[in-house]
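To whoever is on call:

I kicked off a structure prediction for a single chain this morning and the downstream step that reads the tokens threw a length-mismatch warning. I double-checked the sequence; it's 68 residues and nothing unusual in it as far as I can see. Pasting both halves so you can look.
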Amino acid sequence: MSEQVYRVPDVSCDHCVRAITEELTKRSGVTEVDVNLESKFVTVRHDDSVSDEQIREGIAEAGYDIAA
């Protein structure tokens, strides 16, 4: 099991949480998504079949940018 953390500065409400969570959890291998509105961090727990690129694509498909 792996864990990745991404800073997503545009998350600000429950809709943001739902959009990111729904987009990422429909990917095979993602086991848990935690979106923290205060810190603006998205934590993704997943098995080794999920790449960093797939997670980044999922966040982008939900409509959000990851901070550099």
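Update from on-call: the warning came from a stale cache, not from the record. Cleared it. Sanity check on the structure: Strands lie at 2-7, 30-36, 41-46.
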